[in-house]
Amino acid sequence: MNIYRYEENPIITPADIQPYHKGFQVIGAFNAGVAEYNGETLLLLRVAEQPISDDPNKVLAPVYNTGTGKIDLVELDRKDERYDFSDPRVVRDVTQNATFAYLTSISYVRIARSKDGHRFTIDNEPFIYPSNEQEIFGVEDPRVTQIGEDYYIYFSVVSPKGIGESMVSTRDFSNVTHHGMIFSPDNKDVLIFPEKIGGKYYALHRPTMKSIGTPEIWIAESDNLLYWGNHKHLLGLRQGMWDSGRIGGGAVPIKTDKGWLELYHGATMEHRYCMGAVLLDLEHPEKVIARSAAPVLEPEADYEKKGFFGDVVFSCGVVVDGDIVRMYYGVADTSMACAELSLQEILDSLVYE
Q1: Tens of pLDDT along 273-287?
Q2: Is residue 85 within 8 Å of 101, Cβ to Cβ?
Q3: Can you give the residue range of the structural domain that contains 262?
Q4: CATH number of residue 257's parent domain
Q5: Among 49, 54, 117, 176, which lies 20 to 30 A Cα-Cα from 222?
Q6: H helices within the chain, ranges in order?
Q7: Model confidence pLDDT, tens digit, residues 116-156
């Protein structure tokens, strides 16, 4: 498959963004939802900011305070045997079966804008910021579905109660209406189809199983985009393959003559993240027609292999122009990149069920 990675890659890095919080540093600008609005390509960046600690033996964990609307810092001692600091992203509580206790950064959404899809200017202020108790550890990995004049933006919300999916909508990327949580914990990687199918809205989602089962893709339906039901398992892991560890939705499904094309992410047990594709029936999207045997994009470039969490390519949105699929994707949980692929070549690469 022919892949053209932009010469400017990575197109946005943490160095391009001024921290919003005093005493913090930007450690990630990645996993952006994508929209086209008013003649521009918009990247809804997940911006991760980390408090700067003057003491190497201390970790400062940021937590949004719903009372003050500001960020509080919880000081943790690296010598405290209750906590596991081995993962740079999270602090785990070993007394509670190593469940995560705090994140080491806090994420929010900031908009980057471009006329040509290559060079972006970044807003100074957050667009979506933590606002309630479901979001005290941050908001992450937004996706955008346009239906008519409305842009529905949904994203993971993180708190001690778990990770769920909340949604807002806008018509101008300035004024926002909050719709609350649409998928309860533990769930993420939600993708809403861009039109009704048989009179229903459809969405992909990825429950995270703690008792039995594995992290795989499900499909649900709704009459109003807010209340989802008739959940069905859609796509599973494949042992020994590039998507053997976990899978989840990536870009908003693309309507083609052959079916709905979903570009999804898959990871191995060693946490190597790639992008692949699955083709769903146009009239019955719960039916899988074909699927990638090999990734359509995998971490090969240096900026994809090295970073805050290396060996990761992770797309939350694309722009389709004829046969060209412009895939914007996060690299190494650090920066944003873009690659162009052929829609027809992706479809031709699929293995039919």
Answers
A1: 999 999 999 999 999
A2: no
A3: 4-352
A4: 2.115.10.20
A5: 176
A6: 302-305, 343-349
A7: 999 999 999 999 999 999 999 999 999 999 999 999 999 99
